[in-house]
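Hi all, posting the design record for the shared folder.

TITLE: backbone redesign
STEP: 1 of 1
STRUCTURE INPUT:
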């Protein structure tokens, strides 16, 4: 079933237990090609076989709106996801603000059904801990995806740890801001204490987070301290017995400046592709030269590198910004 010229049809054999109402936004993840024009797609944590007339891109995630046509469930990819998020916020009685839109985008990126109560809970948590939604909304939503109650006592310690080095908006005791400890030794001791657990003998919640699988993806987060740099290593696990599908390295300096490196498996061939992001619009010449030198060395190892250092304003720490929408139209017929 085509929705117009240049559209891509995805036909499913039955709705597979998908719970959608007309007008609702949903995230469709293209998992992998099965054979020929048959693909495996993920919707609301379910993996379903599908048929597409035109090629899809494995690993892409499509933002679509649900409707019913002739008794069939149809999902149409949106050309302007930002305006759709504002519309969704207003329809659900949520503030049409940037923070709310970032949280809604995190729900859709995780493939979770948008529920106003859960959105408000995430927003209240981020506001209470003074954590920026752009960098921490996806982490908070992942807790829900792993069935971790946001009201659990350990969440207040776990969430900043998952974004270690990025808590620039969180005021700590003594007037210090997160990720800006007084010295390297002090900062290392602080990280060791967080990983060891609370003084009361409670274990750190980080191992539990890493052990639990999400509905559609399984991310493992490892915080680190290397000299004055603080950050995280994030691994997206593939199916059992296969290499990791993505590695994200995020590092921040107490003097300011954050870098993110995203290493992903290339779908069309063996090997990996590397992208770099920075929180600064322009980079000094030494940084650009080091990036080119690193890219050249990695090329010898079969890693294809993007020459552009991109501003990370639309990077949530997990998904590449352009992975959200790839096609003008997709119909999913149930």
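Okay, here is what came back for every position:
SEQUENCE:
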């Amino acid at each position: 079933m085509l929705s117009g010229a240049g559209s891509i049809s995805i036909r499913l054999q039955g709705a597979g237990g998908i719970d959608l109402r007309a007008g609702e936004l949903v995230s469709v993840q293209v998992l992998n090609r099965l054979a020929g024009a048959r693909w495996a797609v993920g919707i609301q944590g379910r993996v379903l076989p599908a048929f597409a007339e035109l090629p899809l891109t494995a690993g892409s995630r499509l933002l679509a709106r649900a409707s019913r046509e002739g008794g069939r469930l149809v999902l149409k990819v949106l050309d302007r996801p930002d305006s759709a998020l504002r519309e969704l916020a207003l329809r659900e009685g949520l503030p049409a603000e940037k923070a709310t839109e970032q949280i809604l985008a995190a729900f859709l990126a995780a493939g979770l059904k948008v529920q106003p109560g859960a959105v408000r809970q995430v927003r209240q948590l981020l506001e209470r801990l003074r954590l920026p939604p752009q960098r921490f909304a996806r982490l908070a939503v992942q807790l829900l995806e792993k069935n971790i109650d946001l009201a659990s006592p350990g969440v207040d310690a776990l969430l900043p740890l998952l974004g270690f080095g990025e808590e620039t908006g969180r005021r700590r005791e003594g007037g210090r801001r997160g990720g800006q400890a007084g010295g390297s030794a002090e900062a290392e001791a602080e990280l060791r204490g967080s990983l060891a657990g609370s003084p009361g003998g409670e274990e750190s919640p980080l191992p539990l987070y890493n052990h639990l699988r999400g509905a559609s993806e399984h991310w493992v987060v490892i915080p680190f301290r290397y000299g004055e740099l603080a950050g995280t290593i994030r691994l997206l696990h593939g199916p059992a017995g296969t290499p990791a599908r993505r590695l994200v390295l995020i590092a921040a300096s107490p003097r300011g400046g954050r870098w993110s490196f995203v290493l992903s498996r290339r779908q069309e061939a063996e090997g990996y592709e590397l992208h770099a992001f920075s929180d600064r619009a322009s980079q000094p010449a030494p940084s650009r030269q080091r990036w080119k030198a690193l890219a050249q060395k990695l090329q010898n190892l079969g890693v294809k590198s993007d020459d552009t250092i991109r501003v990370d304003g639309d990077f949530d720490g997990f998904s590449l910004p352009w992975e959200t929408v790839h096609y003008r139209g997709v119909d999913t017929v149930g």
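COMMENT: The longest helix spans residues 285-299.
Let me know if anyone wants the other runs.
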